[in-house]
Design a protein that fits this description.
2 helices; flat; 59% strand; five-stranded antiparallel β-sheet; mainly beta
Length: 264
């Protein structure tokens, strides 16, 4: 989890005013900021800098416009170690959690790539069209599986690489939904001249924060009585070398998407 650095500073400034695990808080609209992002866990861990959506609630002195927030004391952020530009470590980063209610819905889709489907938080999950959405997340779990067949000269080395390309529309509504990790298979074409095998990727899971434009898109849709909908798409990103002919078929990508909108 990568949290907005400004939350850390605000929390430090107002820690003395926090009672227990709550604090008076205000809401900051979503913007973008450069954040240190974990790319490889280990000893040492590796990070890189990415531009990500940030915003949400933060603790204040006195009365905030968002009421009273619970505080997530388990949250962390990542920092580079010393002058390193890739070795990093996690540090405690308590953040304020916006009050309000949640509207959520989980969609599951499993089909031949390429596919597209719309996931919607139904309007019935919201008490009225007059709510204000303060944050929106999409938690995505994805797994690929495919069968490959290739023909070529016996004894020839081959390499097969497969990944599923991912997109969410409208563009820019959420942080980046990464393509699935590349699955690489290598070997030597047997005497039969034909290679056939099936393979699958590990389950990839990610939670994406909606950007300001994504929240605005969902807000306009909910205000019109249509719920909050986004389009999820996949595409094949496949290569094969060493063969005279080859085919990736069938290729399936199974995805579950949980959309959660926090509103007041």
């Amino acid at each position: 989890m990568i949290a907005c650095k400004s939350w850390v500073l605000v929390f430090a400034l107002f820690a003395a005013h926090v009672a227990g695990q709550t604090c008076p808080c205000s809401f900051a609209p979503t913007t973008t900021s450069q954040q240190v992002v974990l790319t490889q866990a280990g000893n040492p861990s590796r990070c890189q800098v990415e531009t990500l959506p940030v915003g949400g609630c933060f603790c204040v002195v006195g009365t905030g416009d968002a009421g009273t927030c619970n505080i997530d004391t388990s949250a962390v952020r990542w920092e580079f170690v010393g002058t390193s530009t890739d070795v990093c470590t996690s540090v405690s980063n308590p953040v304020a959690l916006c009050p309000g209610n949640e509207a959520s819905f989980t969609c599951v889709f499993d089909d031949n790539v390429a596919w597209s489907f719309v996931c919607t938080i139904p309007q019935s999950q919201f008490p009225s069209t007059a709510v204000t959405i303060t944050s929106l997340t999409a938690t995505i779990k994805q797994e690929d599986n495919f069968t490959f067949t290739g023909d070529g000269p016996a004894g020839t080395s081959f390499e097969v690489a497969y990944s599923t390309g991912n997109t969410i529309l409208p563009a820019g509504s959420f942080g980046n939904w990464p393509d699935t990790p590349i699955k690489l298979d290598t070997g030597v074409i047997p005497a039969s001249g034909t290679v056939t095998f099936s393979d699958s990727s590990d389950v990839a899971s990610i939670t994406l924060q909606a950007t300001g434009s994504g929240i605005a898109f969902a807000q306009n849709s909910v205000s019109s009585g249509n719920g909050a909908s986004f389009l999820f798409q996949t595409s094949q990103e496949a290569t094969a070398s060493g063969f005279e002919s080859n085919e990736f078929f069938p290729v399936f990508s199974r995805v579950s998407v949980t959309l959660i909108a926090v509103y007041v």
